[in-house]
Amino acid sequence: MLSHPQPTFPNHLRNAQIDGTVRLVGRIGTDGRLTSVVTESGHPDLAVAVEDAVRDWTWQEALLNCEPVEIGITISVTFLLPNPSPAAQQ
After folding, report:
1. Would you kindly state where each structural domain of the chain is located, as residue ranges?
2. CA distance 63 to 23
């Protein structure tokens, strides 16, 4: 992977204490960018955050017999809320 900007956890979901995992299934094209992306998520706003970030992700081209080829990929991105400190729980 050459470029991997992190997705931004949407503030309204963080404030609402909503976290989750987004799963992307797609292909890395011969240009090193994701194509044909299918997104699965428990919350559509998490999916949008990941989709916005992956537009800028790039990979070094995959080669087969010295020729660039597309390759399948599955990526999971997890948005986790921080654990509250013990003092905050009292």
Report:
1. 21-77
2. 25
Q: Is 33 exposed, middle or buried (0-12, 13-18, 19+ CB in 10 A)?
A: middle
For the record, the structure tokens of 49 come out as 């955050």
Q: Are 23 and 76 in contact (CB under 8 A)?
A: yes
CA–CA separation, 75 and 80 (whole Å): 16
Cβ contact 32:2 at 8 Å: yes
pTM: 0.80
Q: Which helix (H) or strand (E) holds 44?
A: helix 44-54
Q: Is the pLDDT of residue 18 over 70?
A: yes
20-64 per-position pLDDT tens digit: 999 999 999 999 999 888 889 989 999 999 999 998 999 998 999
User: Which residue type is seen at 75?
Assistant: I
The answer to whether 50 and 40 have CB atoms below 8 angstroms apart is: no
